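Memo to structure team: turn this sequence into structure tokens by end of day. - J.P.
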Amino acid sequence: MAVLTLGWVVCFLARGNLQGPLTFNFCYKIPVVKKALHKSSVARYFLVVGVLQISNAHICNLQTTAMKKMITACLLLVSTYFLSAQVVTPDELVRFKQDTTARYFISKIKTNQVYIPMDFNSAEMKDLSAWREIKYNTILKVELVYTAYRKSDYFDQPKLNIERLNALRKNAPEAFNSTLTKWKFIAQTDCKTEDEAKNLFHGFVITYRPELAAPLSSDQYDLIHCTVEKYTNPDYSKLIKSAAYGKTKPDLADAPKPPVCGENVMELRDTAVLSVLNRKTDWKNFAIVCDVTGSMTPYVAQTLIWLKLNAKATKVSSYTFFNDGDGKMDAEKKVGETGGVYAQKTMVYDTIENFLFATMRKGSGGDAPENNLEAVIKTLEKFPDTKEIVMIADNPANVKDIELLYKIRKPIRIVLCGTGYGINADYLNIARMTGGSVHTIEKDIEDLVKINEGEYFEFKGQKFKLQYGKFKPVYEM
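Reply from structure team:
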């Protein structure tokens, strides 16, 4: 541990004036540091703890602001490695409570579910073809299904479950990457003999969120446009601008439709974007960075509604829209170079809408993780005077480029869309590490930076623990 920590101390002292990405490049070239970052999580943990101890003891005594910023950058860098790690391990999962059912009928799975079959008393995966079709989608639930029958009193079911989970992690590591994923263990009881047990399903059933890979049709653009026209109608736009919006949802069902659109408007069920942007009147000189991939269509409409009602307000400094790659194949997307990021400054609403639609026409995403931080970095490069970022984010989608977080030195205020499954910890970590905040339709989470290592944070029954510098979900065992 002392040797690993020494590597970082040498880095600090040798490059006192180096900041941001350059600090990373220099520190990473030190062999002991590079080696440590590629070792086990335990080695990285001791490295972080050592650096934290040194910084806590000496950062207050540093004479230069440059040195303080440099140490902060290195600490952020180390923490970024933990952010990219898998959310949960098989050893942790196997402690979950086991549910029982008489039979699990695999023939009755839903259209957004696939299964990976296994044999009785085996950890070998027989067919991964269905999984490969959805591996880049957001995984909502993983169920391990098996039988409660034992051939021997000495049979160790938890051991076999760990072997099966390790097989899943080896062949389908993406299933372990989201903090939103629910895990379940189901033992079937309708079997008294080995033959009866062999006739029942064994394996994994995976529930996923379908993704919209194809660009929107012209009718769908018309739908967004007409929805904006409806909700900005002068007869009731005052309801949209109401400071109370989001606390008590106004009844907009009887509002007049735009003459050219008729009934061609979408119902806004989750009004997170409107609620937050109308509530946070204290935000000034911020850049909007908005995910415009296919799954965000209802929230894109809300963003346009708010912008049309506030286009002339000087509080918004610029607009950035990103589509995760301009339609690239998933395998061609590289962290930091995914593309599909477009930014501009304007106060003319029609220009904003056309610019957003042009971005959407170039691509609709594809895989679930999005290039959020690449979009933020491009915004800050193009508009360096930006004070803070307001990110309108697809909560169920992971942040594919979270390893770039060390490059960002501006607060990120995150408006979370689609929190019905809970909060994705990626966004909690981004907000905490940048001194920003997280906002849902009903709550502003603004004190994340005050949470210390080992402490807990809870939101609507979902519990997180700050462990090794990042929020990890606390599962019910």
